[in-house]
Specification:
The chain is α+β, with helices and mostly antiparallel strands and 647 residues long. The protein is 36% helix and 25% strand. The chain folds into five domains: 2-51, no CATH class; 55-235, Threonyl-trna Synthetase, Chain A, domain 2 (Threonyl-tRNA Synthetase, Chain A, domain 2); 248-290 and 358-538, Bira Bifunctional Protein, Domain 2 (BirA Bifunctional Protein, domain 2), CATH 3.30.930.10; 292-339, no CATH class; 552-641, 3-Layer(aba) Sandwich (Rossmann fold), CATH 3.40.50. It has 22 helices and 32 strands. 34% of the residues are buried. Mean pLDDT is 91; it is low at 1-5.
Length: 647
């Protein structure tokens, strides 16, 4: 073993020996793991260089930048304690325990200046493996109590490593798994974006920390483009658009539970109707199920053991009458009824309500019932994370042999719908067994393999997310990229052999014996509310004609053409089109500005010339000025454009 240790070489040395290292290489993938260039490894390992522009390289840059930011913070604000600083999808953050209040915008700019000084010195990052006792003593002596907690949480047998950068005057180090860039000079484009509060370890019972967010890129051009998209995202924020376009609102009387206004409700229902109208041709039957169930029901389904903290519970007076206050919480937790957080258990009741034959399989049901989940106040966000919502929820009860064809049918359905809404870039991820789960290892092996093979057969590349499946089975997640290049997790498909067993579901097979069905959970949109928020931002509030709450508005030049304008509106409305009329005393310019702010797909201006020629002066939101068009021609065009996309 000793001779092997002396033979270890750094990835930099190994790549340099073969001429495979360039100035843009920041790390390597070695033996299935991302490792920095200065960590000694077994020279027999196969190495793949990771460039700064690669996704993995970008994560290394951002994590390294988080260290430099923490260094700058402690230089500027002595006594500030550090906690964790990971890379995230949009950049990085670091949590700090700072006395005397939080960080200001002015503080962020000062921190950026010091960070630039650290980067300019191009000091190398180095990694040292130390004993747990040494690391604990070092950080304890520094008063870094959060780091001591982190060290104590590292599993026995795992290495404890410190990463250092800086010079003799300003050395800085942190307990960290890495990897990091070779030196601070690789961090060429950095921006600190904002500050937020965050509880230590995400627990509201712990101290509130100050979290500084930032982002970093390999080049200034890439950073500038990212910042441009951030500004565009602010303009497209669905909460802002929801208010401007009279779509929905929130009220403290029902925290994190949206109220949809008429225009928003129209879009919401159009979305539901779009998939609902395709269900019959795809063999689905719609059902309606209750909202509240006895606690025994959720105990049977497994939700009380795996999902209780996210469930709303209700009780009657007779349940708590005479219960000692000290025991009240236990009684409510065990025996109070629950508002359903998902539809799958109630669909099991429907399947098991009578004896079923294999000839009925696959049995496909769908349910648009409301669901309720308690989300903590720190994670709710507009429509994208709410406490009451609706899913285009569906479940398929089938045999194991039918799973491949059901997955194939779902994938076609899913991609048809997303193309109709203008989403083209979709990443697929397979979430596998979590630590806390139902069922045997054999069942999980079979379920995960079925989904993986189904994706391979469909020719879809996918990423594996270890440990992120549901407690009852693995799932496929569909991550959709929007117009601002952001990824959102929406639809799902889940393979569940476990909940049917808990409800003792069975069908009579061809051999005359009872067999257990597989249950497939699937949703196209996922949460309608979440899809609404993402779609609204994707289109920037510019709903296509078919789903726009109002498709056109007739604008009068003067009161002299009011009668003709009313005639135009009525003719369009009689064709089933959603058309408004502005015959107010405002000047035409003001009417046009108001209509544009309201995002009408079409503005129809009518004056004396249009009235005389039976035309409308049409302005398209997407194509600009279209000129005078005969009313019959325009109405025919609008009727055609108002049809939902074919899937």
């Amino acid at each position: 073993m000793g001779s092997q240790a002396t033979e270890k070489k750094t990835p930099r040395d190994l790549l340099s020996a073969h001429g495979k290292i360039g100035d843009d290489v920041v790390a390597v993938r070695a033996n299935g793991k991302v490792i920095d260039l200065h960590t000694p490894i077994d020279p027999t390992w196969s190495l793949t260089p990771i460039k700064a522009s690669d996704p993995e390289g970008l994560a290394v840059i951002r994590h390294s930048t988080a260290h430099v930011m923490a260094d700058a913070v402690q230089r500027l604000f002595p006594g500030t304690k550090v906690t964790i600083g990971p890379a995230i999808d949009a950049g990085f953050y670091y949590d700090f325990d700072k006395s005397g209040g939080g960080f200001t915008e002015d503080d962020l700019r000062k921190i950026e200046v010091v960070m630039a000084e650290i980067v300019k010195k191009n000091s190398p990052f180095s990694r040292d493996v130390v004993s747990r006792e040494n690391a604990r003593r070092t950080f304890s002596d520094m008063g870094e109590r959060f780091k001591v907690e982190i060290i104590d949480a590292i599993p026995e047998g795992e290495e404890v490593s410190l990463y250092r950068h800086g010079d003799k005057e300003h050395p800085w180090f942190d307990v960290c798994e890495g990897p990091h860039v070779p030196s601070t000079g690789f961090l060429k484009a950095v921006k600190l974006t904002h500050v937020a509060g965050a509880y230590w370890r995400g627990d509201e019972r712990n101290p509130m920390l100050q979290r500084i967010y930032g982002t970093a890129f390999p080049t200034k051009e890439a950073l500038d483009e990212h910042l441009r998209l951030i500004e565009e995202a602010k303009l497209r924020d669905h909460r802002k658009l929801g208010k401007e376009l009279d779509l929905f609102l929130f009220n403290e009387g029902a925290p994190a539970m949206p109220f949809f206004l008429p225009k928003g409700a129209f879009v919401y229902n159009q979305m539901i109707d779009y998939v609902r109208n395709m269900y019959e041709s795809r063999g689905y039957q719609e059902v309606v199920t209750p909202q509240i169930f006895d606690a025994a029901f959720f105990r049977k389904s497994g939700h009380l053991d795996h999902y209780n903290e996210n469930m709303y519970r209700v009780w009657t007076e007779d349940l708590i009458e005479g219960v000692e206050p000290a025991k009240l919480a236990d009684v409510l937790r065990a025996d109070s009824a629950g508002i359903k957080p998902m539809n799958c258990p109630s669909h099991c009741i429907l399947f098991g309500s009578r004896r079923r034959s294999y000839r009925e399989l696959p049995w496909r049901v769908t349910d648009f019932g409301r669901l309720h989940r308690y989300e903590r106040g720190g994670v709710v966000h507009g429509l994208s994370r709410v406490r009451t919502f609706c899913q285009d929820d569906g479940h398929v009860f089938c045999t194991r042999e039918q799973v491949p064809s059901e997955l194939e049918a779902f994938l076609k359905f899913f991609y048809d719908v997303y193309r109709a809404f203008g989403f083209e870039k979709i990443a697929v991820k397979l979430a596998t067994r979590p630590d806390k789960r139902l069922g045997s290892e054999e069942e999980w092996d079979m379920a995960e393999d079925a989904l993986a093979q189904g994706l391979k057969k469909a020719g879809l590349a996918f990423e594996v997310l270890p440990g992120e499946g549901a407690f009852y089975g693995p799932k496929l997640e569909f991550h959709v990229e929007d117009a601002l290049k952001r990824a959102w997790q929406l639809g799902t498909f889940q393979y569940d052999p476990n909940i049917p067993a808990r409800f003792d579901l069975a069908y009579i097979a061809e051999d005359g014996k009872e067999h257990r069905p597989v249950m497939l959970h699937r949703a196209i949109f996922g949460s309608i509310e979440r899809f609404f928020s993402i779609y609204l931002e994707h289109i920037g509030g510019n709903f296509p004609t078919w789903i726009a709450p109002r498709q056109a508005i007739v604008l009068t030049v003067s009161e002299k053409v009011d009668a003709y304008a009313l005639e135009v509106q009525k003719k369009l409305a009689d064709l089933g089109l959603r058309v408004d009329l502005d015959s107010s005393a405002d000047k035409l310019g003001a009417k046009i500005r108001n209509a544009r702010l309201a995002r009408y797909p079409y503005l129809c201006v009518v004056g004396a010339k249009e009235a005389e020629a039976s035309t409308v002066g049409v302005r398209s939101r997407e194509r600009g000025e279209l000129g005078a068009i005969p009313i019959d021609v325009f109405s025919a065009q609008l009727v055609e454009e108002a049809k939902p996309p074919k899937a």
